[in-house]
Amino acid sequence: MTERGPIAAVENFIFGRRPLVIAFFVIATALMLFSAVTRLAIDAGFDKMVPMKHDYMRTYSEHRQEFGGANRVLIALVADEEDIFTGTFFEALRVATDEVFFITGVDRAAVQSLWTPNVRYTEVVEDGVQGGPVIPSDYSPDAIGLAKVRENVLKAGVVGRLVANDFSAAIISAQLLETNPETGKELDLVRVSHDLDDKVRARILEDPEFAGIEVNIIGFAKVVGDISDGTSRVLLFFLVAALITAVLVYLYCQSIKITLIPLFCSLIAVIWQLGSLTLLGYGIDPMGILVPFLVFAIGVSHGVQMISSVGSELISGASCRDAAQRSFRRLLVPGGIALASDTIGFITILLIPVRVIQEMAITASLGVAAIILTNLILLPVLISYLDLGDDYRARLRQRSERLRGNWSRLAGITDRKPAAIMLAIAAILFVFGYWKGSEVKIGDIHKGVPELRAESTYNLDSASITDRFSIGVDIITIIVETPSQGCIQYEVMNAIDEFSWHMRNVEGVQGVVALPMISKIINTGWNEGNLKWRVLSRNEAILVQSVAYVETSTGLLNRDCDVMPVMMFTSDHKAETIENIIAEFKAYVVANPTDGVSIRLANDDDDVKFRLATGNVGVMAATNEEVSAAQFPILMGVFAAIILLCWATFRSVRAVLCIVVPLGLVSLLAYALMAFLEIGLKVNTLPVVALGVGVGVDYGIYIFSRLQEYLRRGETLHAAFLETLSVTGNGVVFTAVTLGIGVATWIFSPLKFQADMGILLTFMFLVNMLGAIFLLPAMAAWLFPENRRES
Amino acid sequence: MKSALFIYTMVVSACLCAFSAALAKDEPAFGDRWSEPARLASQDLLLSIDGVSGGLVVVGARGHILFSGDQGVAWTQSSVPTRATLTGVDFVTLDIGWAVGHDSIILHTDDGGETWSLQNHDPAAETPFLDVWFADEQNGLAIGAYGLMLATSDGGENWQQVLFAPETEAGPADDEDEEDEEGAWWESESESGGDFHLNDIMETRDRHLFIAAEAGNIYRSDDLGASWLTVSPDYQGSFFGVVEAGVGRVIAVGLRGHLYYTDDLGVNWVSVELPTEATLNSGIRLIDGTILVTGLGGAVLVSQDNGESFELHTQENRKGVQTALQLDDGSVMLVGEAGIGMLKLGVAEGRNDD
User: Is the minimum CB–CB distance between B47 and chain A shorter than 8 Å?
Assistant: First the structure.
């Protein structure tokens, strides 16, 4: 069979120089492997995970030197008895405090617990103020000593902060340094996290003397540590998924040699992807670690199409070389188009201005582009060298006969009535998907650190601590920039105070901490504790007195006291909560522009400026805004690209409809699934929707291109679809199931976002397949009535 | 009667007034800063409560004034022409009352607290009022920091600064002589140390006035504020509240759990040992004669024996309780750091006579 045209030219070029082609791949792969092995590093920088160009994040970066350093770790010891006032508990607290003190990277002067000398009580007495350490130097672990401590705890005002509100627990608070004092390098937070577990948690939990005392640890360092630990387990999931895939491919193609070729080619694509990652100067981050698997999966998917095609050629008696060459010819265009749409799907993700996501978009598109070379060119070339005997052909034929019965039943869907039923079902699903899908929430829905599972140790610890103490873990910080020495100017302090109070009243804000409040409390102290003096003094000298003792380490002011953060503790970090607070903030700033004292956003140097926002919730607010802004452009981009490519390939509006409508339905259903499973639309899940569409289109393109080929030969739709199914259908169904199973293992990942992605990708792989083999032919039945079988 | 109380002293002292600017009735610079309606106003710092004929009014931080016509079931926040912290409120009828506070604010209402007009305002003086008392619809006193005292005899239309200079010797009330008193007043001015914070003012059933003041000072007036005597017990810490107990007994409470009572209008004081060292802010006498004293850290002291001994009932939130008021149904409403709350009496933590 000789054909003319560009494809034939490419075919002849490649198959005429097979050794050269193989040599090219060997060299390229060696280079990429070298690059990947020597320079690949795990890179989980905080900056990469957030939209740094967002306004809020700019505020954050401008002030991080002064306030970003507040990297605190809280270790709570929870008493097993009624309260903490037992000798054993205080001994445990002392031991734990000592352990924390000696962890590398802990700022020793700033460690606080009931045992540290910097935690003191003060009380107003007749001739002034007196005070002392909460645990006196003559402390004895008996009833008298503990009663004294209880009294001092109340006087020290540490209830809610260092001691639980119900006295059931006590906290050790530690501030982390920026650099490791031993090496002078940036502090390794993962190591701090491990030290906290190994030295503090284990020390208390494993000591029989302290039996019953529980340990809860929270803090940014612990989050980083736990995510990093989870990330290393991602590799395990990768291996499990790859193994399952290999076994299934073998079961499918019944030949170890043929099994190995698509796996091997897909692995080469992964190597290229990792190599290009390092060539571009990127590292692997917790999110990006999923990309290699995705590339592998897509590679296998296309590889299976290729071996299915080869198999059907072999059945009809062709030699391996002819089978490979014909398959190449047949699949280069649809495969190329499918992969091109995947690539474009990935590239649209670039619209989310978060660096991890953008890197993921670039590396994933590079990986998919590599698949075009490895699986559409190298794979058939390698197969052409195989020599498969007649018994293999027989086995394939047998399997093909077995399946044909199923396919012929399925092909019935192209008849008028089943097609109508199918379309009706699709219409109902559309309505359902639209209704339920519109309930999808942007951002995080659940409590706790969103990267980790709700039932992870960290999130349980966090819930335990926020329950017992007056400590919020969800914080939005507003940065107030004021004229120099703003903290001793009544107008400035009052403006901040009024703003704080206004925000305190916003639904979803559980507490606000800002310098003016502290100043008022100190002023009360200077007035014998009389609540009637809990005010900001208009007198500068008195105001100075009321802020002089507030240290910059509180994070409430900077050294020049012209920047004062207002920390708002939110009830949760759901997107609605955040949106509401941000909207109130913006409205307040607009409504109070020149009111009495000037609170303006103008660049006037004399004015007080309120700027959003830092704190974990501030970061989420910024991210949510970016996600919601990127959502529609991304989907529009993906679908526009697919529509364009499909039209360019098939030159038929009907073809485009047949392929795109099922895809659209599945995307809509994916939204509905997210709403149903309470998975928020966020940085981690938005790409999945785009990726899923890109992957799903493969099925449609493969099936339709084959269908069109048979239709052009003048066959009825029923016959054409039956033929299509017996050649391509096996591959499509098989691929979907294989990838679905592989990705489904992610659901057991300790990382929440990986689990979420696992659920969504499994859904996308499987349901897109169903769309391609049920809805696509049903649509074709109505769009190509001239080809319908007479019934 | 009321004119007799004030005539000369008011006029003279007004001349000495360093606050003349404060008397200007113009809308002050900050007068357009009306209080902000706030969802959580009833949970903000609230400092004083008064109830007459079933109406309740509470004042506190940021110019919050809340009033209730149904014994505190529902509260309405008034629109108030200031955001200064208000420290005291006094009503003479259901409708007519005054509130005072920082920035030398005096506010007046004649509709039960719904709307308020500014009668005095002087932020520049940096002197807060700490309490207010009215004898009737015309005559009243506002007291505050550094011996600040303003008086009115026309319902607040005009407020005059009074030079607060109490006589140091305590004597029987009926020995007072109006003419002598005025002379003594002048003489004692320099040595009186009259710039102490005047924290709380209270009128007894026999129409004696008591003021609890800074640095262990208690002052008494037997002529409704025209003249004052120092009747302090021997204690140097500040007093923040005075309350009338039964049978002519007056109790003063203050710093670090100090509580004294007198049965002879301040001539002799008896110190009562308390089961707390919390600073005490004020006290009230309930209908059944129970004495209730409130303080910082959630301290509420209860006496069933007219103030001889007290039980401590620390409120669970441990927030400072500024003052209390008994409602019509006998329950007790508290106001303070945590806003408005109801008294909860659990098991007493200790008695002074244990």
Answer: yes
